[in-house]
Amino acid sequence: MTNSKCFFDTACNLLLLVWLTIAVRANDTPLSHSSASLTFEKRNNGAHDSNDETSPITIPRRVSSTTKKTCALLGAERLAPYKILRNGDYFREVSYMSHTTQSVLNQDPIVWVGSDGRWTSISAVSLATGDIIRTYRLDIPSGVKGADWESISLGPCSSDANDPETCLYIGDIGNNSAGDCLSRPCDRGRDFVIIYKLKEPQLDVPYNDEALQVATLEVNYKHKDMPVDRNNCEALFVDWTAGSGRGDIYMVTKHGSDGIANTRIVKLAVGDHENLTGGSVTSHSVVPVGTPSLWKSGWSGADMSLDGGLILLRSGSYVYFFERDEGESVAQVLEGSPCSFEHETDRSGNNDKQFEAVTMMGPKKFLEASECRDSGMCDVAVYAYELVFEESPPVTAPPVSPAPSTSNEEWVDITVDDFESGWGSFESNGKDSFWCSYDSSNSDCRNDKYKDYAHSGVAAVRIQDTGMKSSFSHMNTHDVTSCHELRIQFSFCAYEIEENEEFYVDYYDGVQWGIVGTWVSGGAGSNDGFYHYFRTEQCYKESVSLRPPEFVFPSNAMIRFGAGASRNNDAIYIDDVVFSCRKKESQTTKAE
């Protein structure tokens, strides 16, 4: 293996620090753009400056590994804000908003918007004037007991790409008590939630106040693969993409910190609702299709661009952007890495203490609205942003990879460890690496104040401080000579990690150890495959691949995890480690 680093050697670390400093300064080049109000989040010697107008720093890689998706999205420029005027109690706690492409009133932007709670109407508002254009009553079937409207999305009515009609999907999907469910069966909260579907009302057509018919979809979480059978949820969107998934409804569930491992991406297929008629009431079980790569307990808003190429997810003060390539499923995108740019909401306004509603506005803009909750009724602040994309991707040499194989290939797990029963395939290398389980008297950290550190179950491995004592590694070596690709998958949660502190994944190639990935606290930066950036107090799922010729596959390979923090309170919890091999079946001799 080339360019490996002697991770635990102090002299080597000092030399590397000098090298990195030179590399950083050499790559800190200006980025030209059209507006001085454009803000970026970037990594610069551990500091963040929202007014710094330089490009994200690129540090040369020492070894190759899996590259996370490189987004063309660079940042967002704040535009002039809008305002929705207070209208009685219509907008007491704005939780959902969706921009419509309809154009009336001099083509001013229009949104469908509403408040948390139980409602029987939906309003269209002009952002230019702040006034309600029209409020439509909905014919909710008698006997349907709605409780908590939390989300709205525009989307295609059917899977037919030639169908021009657009539908509104209103998510009465809030279920706060169910957010505490940790296992099934659970009796907290509602047994099912509701999605109302109706054709989008045309604002240029006269309205006589007649209630509009809706299709009522009673949605439950009883699918056998769901970890809990009741969930809270506030994030819903519909797939616009032409193809088999057009019209699929997606939700991202929401749990308290103790149940964060139960968060799922779930789907209601278009075939379940495209032929429903107004007035119908049907029952459906959503299907879990994945787990978000960002471990958050509070997903509260979501949307997809009309071309299907960008998905937005909100949690707390941040909006995360996921670019979607052609042929990628929604689950693949949300299980992968978001763009390095994260939008942090400015909550300094008097009525801007909490935000949930977020929506795309055209292909390159998005909106977010304040809840107004702290002051009861208020004029709702709606902030608009122009997304800034890289004009043309940089030209880079293609990565070195083995020639395509014509033989069958399969992944084989070498070691699989969830740490529920102890160290498994690994062992500690010192006092700052220990097994944690918050329900076991044998745990070295059963009294830790963080009770949601395990990706699955109740156990994980904690590493802290720095040095050999802060690492753990395979107990035995493994023969990987028959592999032509190796993969290291794991999850981690970070707590009290200061800016610029790190942890590493090492690989032993039979001769020496070398780092194959570095995870750096800072929240934003160039996820280039070697350097990965994360925010403390959050959890992530990661994957690193190793391929020849950069890596040697010996008969005695091992992997190791090590911390590069500064004190014992800096905690990284590693869980669900899978070390696997892509094997190539031996070629059989051709007959004749």
Write up what this structure looks like.
The protein is mainly beta. It has helices at residues 10-26, 330-335, and strands at 38-39, 73-78, 82-84, 94-100, 110-115, 121-126, 132-139, 151-156, 166-172, 193-199, 212-213, 215-220, 232-238, 249-254, 265-268, 281-285, 287-290, 294-295, 299-304, 310-315, 318-323, 342-344, 355-360, 365-370, 380-389, 409-417, 426-428, 433-437, 459-464, 466-474, 483-495, 502-508, 513-521, 531-534, 539-546, 558-564, 571-584. Strand 5 and strand 6 form a beta hairpin. The protein has two helices and 37 strands. The strands form seven sheets. Strands 18, 26, 28, 29, 31, 35 and 37 form a seven-stranded antiparallel β-sheet that branches. Strands 1, 2, 3, 23, 24 and 25 form a six-stranded antiparallel β-sheet that branches. It has a six-stranded mixed β-sheet with strand order 27-30-36-32-33-34, with no helix packed on it.
